[in-house]
TrEMBL record:
<protein>
    <submittedName>
        <fullName>Pimeloyl-ACP methyl ester carboxylesterase</fullName>
    </submittedName>
</protein>
<dbReference type="Pfam" id="PF00561">
    <property type="entry name" value="Abhydrolase_1"/>
</dbReference>
<dbReference type="GO" id="GO:0004806">
    <property type="term" value="F:triacylglycerol lipase activity"/>
</dbReference>
<dbReference type="InterPro" id="IPR050471">
    <property type="entry name" value="AB_hydrolase"/>
</dbReference>
<dbReference type="InterPro" id="IPR000073">
    <property type="entry name" value="AB_hydrolase_1"/>
</dbReference>
<dbReference type="GO" id="GO:0046503">
    <property type="term" value="P:glycerolipid catabolic process"/>
</dbReference>
<feature type="domain" description="AB hydrolase-1">
    <location>
        <begin position="34"/>
        <end position="139"/>
    </location>
</feature>
<dbReference type="InterPro" id="IPR029058">
    <property type="entry name" value="AB_hydrolase_fold"/>
</dbReference>
<feature type="domain" description="AB hydrolase-1">
    <location>
        <begin position="168"/>
        <end position="248"/>
    </location>
</feature>
Amino acid sequence: MNRQAVGSGPAPITRHLETNGLKVAYVEVGAGDPLILIHGAESDRHQFARLQKYLGHDCRSISYDQRDSGATTSPPEPFTMTDLAADVVHLMDALGIDRAHVLGTSYGGMIAQHVALDYPDRLASLILVSTTPTTSVRTPESERLVAMSAEERSEAFIDLLVTPEGRASPEVAAQSRRALAPRTPEQTARRRAAAANHETRNLLNSIEVPTLVIHGSDDRVTPVSWAELLAEQITHAQLRTIKGARHGLTTEFPEKIADYVRQFIGASAI
C-alpha cells in the first residue's frame, strides 16, 4: 500500500449512528479496506487522532467511542466484554462493513480479542497493541492507578503512557491529555467491572486470523511478557516490540505504528 498521509487541514468530523440501543460517536478517515480502532480504558475516539493522520487514505480507519466513553450515548447499566465485542460488530453492520481489520489498544485490545473469539468470520486481521490476555494479574502501577482519584490518575497516567522525551514534545503531551477522556465515577466503575473477568489465555490458540502484536519494552501498565504470550499462543501471530516505549504507543509513536499497520494489513487485504 502506498503511503498517503492526511494533511494538516480541518479535523475529521465526528458523526453519530444508532445501533444496538446505543448512539455511537465515530470518526472515519480515508478509503479502502476498513480498519476499526478500539480505544483504551481511559480514552475515547480522540486517542487515535494522530494515528489516523499517519494512516491517511491508505485504509478506511474508523475510531469510535465505546459505552460510557466520549460522545457515545449508552444506557446507564452494567455491561460485559462480550457486549463490547458485540458493539464492534453492530457498528460494522451499521456502516455496511462485512469484514474488517480490527486494532485494539490496552482495554480495547481486550475487546478486540473477544471480537476475534466471538466473531472470527468478521475479521480480516487482528492487531493487539499494549494489551493483555488477563486482568487477574496487575502490576504495582495498575494497582496504584486504581486507588487514585480521577484527577490524580490522569496526571500519573501520562507518565505511564509516554517516555520523558515524549512528554517534552508539546504535540505528544497535548495528545496524551486529550486522549484521557473525562468520565463520571459511575461510568468508570462500569468499565472496570466489564474488564474484571477478562481471561483469554486458554482460548488464544483458537484465534486463527492473522495477528500482529505490538508492545513497548518499557510498558509498566501491561508488561511485555503478556505480549510475548499473546504472540506465542495465537496461531498466526507476529510480535513487534518498540524499544524503550511505554504504554501509549499510538500517542507517542503513531507514525511507526501506522507503518507497522500499513505493512501488515497490506498482506491481509480484504
